[in-house]
Input
Amino acid sequence: MSDILRLITARDPNEKEFHQAVGEVIESVQPVLDRIIPEYRQNAILERITEPERVLLFRVPWQDDQGQMHVNRGYRIEMNSALGPYNGGLRFHPSVTLSILKFLSFEQVFNNALTTLPMGGGMGGSDFEPKGKSDNEVMRFCQSFMSELFRHIGPDTDVSSGDIGVGAREIGYLFGMYKRLRNEFTGVLTGKSLGWGGSLIRPEATGYGCVYFASEMLSTMNDSIEEKTCLISGAGNAAQYTAEKVIELGGKVVTLSDSTGYIYDEEGIDKDKLEYVKMIKNIRRGRIKDYLDKYSETVYTEADTTLDYNPLWNHKADCAFPCATQNEINEKDARNLANNGVKLVCEAANMPCTPEAVDIFLNNKILYAPGKAANAGGVAVSGLEMSQNSMRLSWPKKEVDSRLKIIMKNIHKTCLEAASEYGQPGNYVSGANIAGFLKVVNAMQDQGLV
Ligand code: NDP
Output
């Protein structure tokens, strides 16, 4: 174990997701550390980059439709502002803890650095569960959450966007409250609706960007997404638009899931079927199982937590796109993917593969892209939304999409170049970590001891 990992583990022994994220980065950047270590030691670079600049933790009281009061916990981790204002999502899910948000904000720092846009990294959220709540309950919660958060954020300080459990509805309520409290209409949240400051392609950006990245990876083998059978997990924002782009590029999507189970449609989930999924998830706020109401031939498998693997990852396929949550692919799932002939794993979710699973992909020469590179499209278009807001302009869809494509192509190139320079050709994990790390650390060195 490295000195820094020993230090943070001793300081916060219960933050296992954060330790996992730091461990992966430190292992990857070892070749950089070997070259420059005395200078980094002297400047306590590793100690500073793993310690949030600021952690906000606050009470979020709210009232349900029956008049019962509840209290949830709200967080914002302002991790690193060396490259610009903090920027990162808000997650509302019962599993949210300080450890999860520290891992997400740590990843976000490198994710944002890779986009080359001037954005630092942050992440926030709450252990609030929006599923099963009425719109009014969600609104009251969002208003209460923002009535504390507004003091700490701003378009030049800290900008938030969506993540698990935070979509267009939640962003709307949060923005409305921010505007009321601050009396200003500024780009402090991205992922807004198109009619009032949102950017075209922002909802699609994470998924589309992920598939653009996968296409770049396949092109290094003179291959493409066309006719590839793809396994996708999740059925939310990242999954829906990953599926949409795969279908558009001629691939075949056979699975989607949520926390209650997954569907396997051997014929392929085409454009019309995907529109039905969007209606179920985004409008009706239903379950993926409802897909069978219209497409009854589909196989539905209930989630089974007693299994030590996820059967979704045990189908014959060419590509896998984990789009749900952290650590959803374990060692056994990775073995199943390899045995089933999968040639590419591209992460839209953050840290969905355990370290043991990643080792299996690398040892089996499977093209593997970590989320911090492959899902950077979301935050990249978030940055483009900030630019449009500050210029009071709205760029056409084609322009935003072509900027997104260029950004993803450049991130891919940057990862490959960094990996080669440090003796790990073709290793996207090393490439993403080294390129992101160097960009942030160089800025920190320039800015002195802050
Ligand atoms: P959504 O809330 O829109 O969708 C999340 C999906 O994942 C749902 O289908 C949800 O099922 C499922 N899911 C969540 N938690 C679990 C769990 N513990 N077990 C099984 N399934 C689960 O979120 P997003 O699509 O926005 O986010 C998905 C991933 O993509 C996350 O890792 C996020 O950090 C990452 N990401 C998202 C970005 C964005 O712009 N939205 C940007 C970059 C990364 P259910 O509805 O049953 O909970």
In short: The chain is about 50% helix and 15% strand.
